[in-house]
Amino acid sequence: MFIHIFIILLGVAMLYPLLWMVSSSFKIQTEIFTGISFFPTKVTFENYVNGWAGLSGITFGRFFINTFFIIFIGIVGNVLSCSMTAYAFARLNFSMKKIWFAIMLVTLMLPFHVTIIPQYIIFNHLEWVNTYLPLTLPRFFAVEGFFIFLLVQFMRGIPSELEQAAKIDGCGPIRIYWYLMMPLSLPAIVTTMIFTFIWTWNDFFGQLLYISNIDLYTVALGLRMFLDSSGKSAWGSMFAMSTLSLVPLFAVFIFFQRYLIEGITTGGVKG
Length: 271
Hints:
Layout: H1 2-24, H2 46-53, H3 60-91, H4 97-107, H5 112-125, H6 133-136, H7 145-156, H8 160-168, H9 173-184, H10 186-202, H11 205-210, H12 219-224, H13 235-255, H14 257-269
Helix pairs in contact: 2-13, 3-7, 3-10, 7-14, 10-14
């Protein structure tokens, strides 16, 4: 019983900052940091109205659309490129296969900050800075080693008898990949889609690095606009839009939780 009480108290402590942000989004600006009460003395939706109206003549809805566009391109790129690469590693035989797979695993150990400078130099030379290309196009070249490894482990667990039966029916590698491996690897593919969604949605540094035009801003960059170190900061509007920005993440996790758990556990056990 004491363990359960401790876990509940720990969970409440972890959720407190989130609950405080949601509560503050319904408070008036002068009441947010007074500490009078956790709950708003008078519920107001002004923060949501002002926050959605945005700044510089651009509504916050535009930032949502920009973010969903980047996520959609990223999901398509990761699913296609990583699944094809994983199918080659898991099912096809080619020279230096183990060496290339080991090199792919090494990329998982490289911190993001090690590659960011050479990547920026390359993208700047290609005149891709201040566009969505650095955030989307590399996804079509299987740059996410984690998703490749996840899909490889899952595809290795698919019975080889199914592949042999497909070959007897006249299927080549491409048709086996598209009509056999892809449907059977659905949990791992959905897991790839979910993680791509979450990581892209939460990405701030990469988007800040490559995007400077306000028309191209994402939700992460749009939230930053409500804070001004040299002027007035709209804390209420920022908390309101931050609360709205969490809705897609919760929705994706709730609706696809079964696939997420199945894809991770099955991919980790099989192989």
